[in-house]
Amino acid sequence: MKKVLLMTVLLGGGMAAQASIKKDTTIIEFNDKATNNSVKVISNTNKTIELPMKLNLESVLKAVGVDSNERERAFVMISKGGTKKDTLLLFSHEGQRIKIITKDIISKRDTTIKGSSEREMEEEIEDEIETYVEENENYKPGDHHNKSDKAPKVKKFFSRSDFAIYLGLNNFVKPQPASPNQLFELRPWQSRYVALSLRKNATLIKGNKVDVAFSYGPEIAWYNFMLQNNNLAKYESGQVSFVQNAKETDKSKLVMPYLNFPVLLNFGFKEDKFKIGFGGYAGYRVGGYSMEKYSRRSENKVKGSFGFNDVIYGLTTEIGKRNGLTVFARYDLNKLFKSNQTYAQDLQAFSVGFRL
User: Fold this and answer.
1) Could you tell me the residue range of the domain that residue 128 belongs to?
2) In the prediction, which pLDDT does 179 show?
3) Which of 81, 293, 330, 339 gives the lowest tally of CB atoms within 10 Å of its CB?
4) Are residues 179 and 126 in the same domain?
């Protein structure tokens, strides 16, 4: 994004101003009494702009280099707003054809920014300017566009950043045959996978039908392996084993948190509002414990690594609607436990669920 210079000029009681500006992009903001609107004239020309003493829509557009036909067109379009005092943005590309953008149009077009902060709204406007520059790089005087003056319905498919919660189930891919007398069967509906994710989306390709984005960012994830029946995990002399408890338990589980860093290549199909992503992840274990619960007031919690690998890595995929529910799946490529674990060899974890 080119550097943007913002100059605000308020007109009241005949107040006037004059300035000479030479920047990549210039924004001149003023109140136009003739149209009863707050107007921003945005120009990406690298020519020096001499502002007139009296600022109004006609004089400012003329100073920027907009020809008389386009100045008249701008006045008509802004006047259609009646008594509404919406902030209007007029973009002038090298003094040629202009485009009208309003914050109201942007918020109606992209429901993802409803309730956005002022900074997020400014980012949306900057994106609109950048998109217009890219689309009109080869514009020549005399060209005529039959498109509507309104901003396109969809600009970027992916937001710049997002926060999400992963809720799913996890289980083991078990070796065949399993180690003798090792009771590591899980309760499938109680073994939960939970993660909190904060990631950035860098749009690589903005197409008419498909956007492509590179997504990355940290997350904290928890494996909750809920053991069946009265089974429990023991960790003695550096070895983990899965045995039957002499006492009846309400629940018995192993919990392992990891700090992960997933990366995905996402494809957004604009017409269908559908997205799909493929990628991988790597993570580092940041704790761990086992817990057996015998009643509401009696439980036994033991902290430790339980022979788990400190580092995990694997493959992931996500598929869903743009602003709707997304399904995810993950599969650890490396073994869940360290190679020196006699009774927990060749176990690999996988998770499936929803990204909210």
Assistant:
1) 4-135
2) 54
3) 339
4) no
Distance (Å, rounded) from C-alpha 348 to C-alpha 356?
A: 25
Based on the domain organization, do 121 and 32 belong to the same domain? yes
Task: Give the residues across from 88 on adjacent strands.
Answer: 39, 102
Q: How confident is the model at residue 212 (pLDDT cuts 50, 70, 90)?
A: very high
Sheet holding 88-92, edge to edge: 4-8, 25-32, 37-43, 88-92, 98-102
Give yes or no: residues 187 and 335 share one domain. Answer: yes
Give how many domains the chain has, as a whole number.
2
In-domain check, residue 64: yes
Does residue 297 form part of some domain?
A: yes
In this predicted structure, the answer to whether residue 98 has a pLDDT above a threshold of 90 is no
Same domain, 172 and 97: no
Question: Distance between CA 140 and CA 133 in Å, rounded?
Answer: 13
Report d(CA 340, CA 44) in Å as an integer.
64
For residues 119 and 268, membership in a common domain is answered with no
CA distances to 164, 243, 352 from 188, in Å: 24, 18, 11
Q: Where are the alpha helices (DSSP H) in 164-310?
A: none
Share of the chain above pLDDT 70, in %: 67
Other Cβ atoms within 10 Å of 68 Cβ, number: 10
- What's the rounded Cα separation, in Å, for the pair 224 and 233? 13
Structural domain includes residue 119: yes
CB under 8 Å, gap of 24 or more: what pairs does 9-17 form? 9/51, 9/55, 11/55, 11/56, 16/52, 16/53, 16/54, 16/55, 17/51, 17/53, 17/55
Q: How many residues in total does the chain contain?
A: 356
User: Tokens 């980012």 identify what position?
Assistant: 123
Residue type, 94: E
Q: How many CB atoms lie within 10 A of CB 194?
A: 17
Q: Identify the helix (H) or strand (E) that includes residue 196.
A: strand 192-206
Give me the mean pLDDT over the 86-103 stretch: 56
Looking at the fold, whether 59 and 182 belong to one and the same domain comes out as no
List the Cα angle 342/288/198 in 5-degree steps.
125
